[in-house]
Task: structure prediction
Amino acid sequence: MQLIVVYDTNVLISGMIWGGVPYDCIKLAKSDKVVGITCSEILDEFEEKLATKLNVPPLQISEIVTNLLSFLRTVRIPNQLRGVTTDPDDDKIIECAIVAGATHIVPGDRKHLLPLQSYQDILIVRAADLLTQLQ
Result:
């Protein structure tokens, strides 16, 4: 069975800007070793953080998003899930995973999603743990 993975905004930023283990994890989707999933809400937050927190120029943001959309599948979420974690921004990550039938969520934030370990049979794992699982 092929794994279906939702990457949170922090993993997408770390991987696409700085590389390292988050990028290696994202590359799994690019090379079809996993099915990578996202939604417009995750991409909107990704773009907003690149612009406001990292001052990435709009053209570069557009290029990064176009690259991601060349290998990540998108799903539409109803934005109805509330209060799963203490960070309301994480509800969209979990909702995206539920809608997509994901097997895994890979968060970069260790405070809110990672402590859950799983949600409705969706495993919540660090990027390094996903890489280890697939080796």
